[in-house]
Amino acid sequence: MALGKWVGFLALAIALYILWEIRQLLLLVFAAVVFATALNSLVRRLHQAGVKRGGAVALALVVLIILSIGFVGLIVPPFVSQFQQLVERVPQGLDRVQSWAQTLQNMVPGSSQYLPGVNDLIREIQPFATRLAGNFFAWFSNALSILLNLLLVLVLMVMLLINPQPYRRGFVLLFPSFYRRRADEILSLCEIALVNWVGGILINMVVIAAVSGIGLLILRVPLVLANSLLAGLLEAIPNVGPVLSVIPPMAIALLDAPWKAGAVLILYIVIQQLEQYLLVPFVMSKQVSILPAVTLLSQVVFAVFFGFLGLFLAIPLVIVGQIWVREILVRDILDPWDKEGRRQTPQELPKLPEVEDPT
Known about the structure:
359 residues, mainly alpha
């Protein structure tokens, strides 16, 4: 192999290694781009209504900050209090299980051979529960790192939102001159898809939060508002989010009455079935179509390689990646070749959909 090819291969390997090392930073930048794209749609509408762009940006950010502070204020304090109560009552629940097991052994002679090691099992569960609680609080001890990451995303989002065109032009300049117009069209398609996805997710979040709140109110589970808001927020993470959202209300229901935990589980299963077969097909009709298996597989892959941030951004990453693959690989490289292996002229190619000017 020639020296030039070895140098090129080495440069490529070094570039890939650097990208892998800064993968978390790249994900934070992508998160800022997604949020800025969603807010830019609101800013553009305010600007069209007569508000200057600077005022529209400030208004959008104020609304976002107020909603974020209000959400955190409604969610965090009651859950911290309820979690402390849950930790205190776990040993009581374990003692109750032990007394039930002892009563069963006394009522049915010889039943101890069918319940081997019940006391040993209880003694093993208690330190495990204590370690789990300790790890839970240790997870919250990393709040400073999370806060710094959120601050970085917020700052980047504001910078992109104030004047997005220089960043867009800089990205387009990375392509050859003959392809820059086409790259700008693909960016517009990505923007439209992300805005539609965010709009659909927001509608799903509101509906799921409202329905969950009504169901929990009927069951008289404490912290209805906090649990319903949490269910709506976790709706942004398909498949995994709904599973996580059922854990807090079930744990809180155990503090009130054990039967309510099962009722909460049934309630959330019914809500998710209704969402899957009624709400999602209706709301997401304008969203970029993604196969369910691709959605689940992408979440697993991104969660394994990039952690929670990758899990949270899996769907927008797949949406953007799907558009670039479809437009570049399929339409610009594969489609121009006809059945006889002849490359078609631009006039012979099927017309591409018109894209609105994002500015």
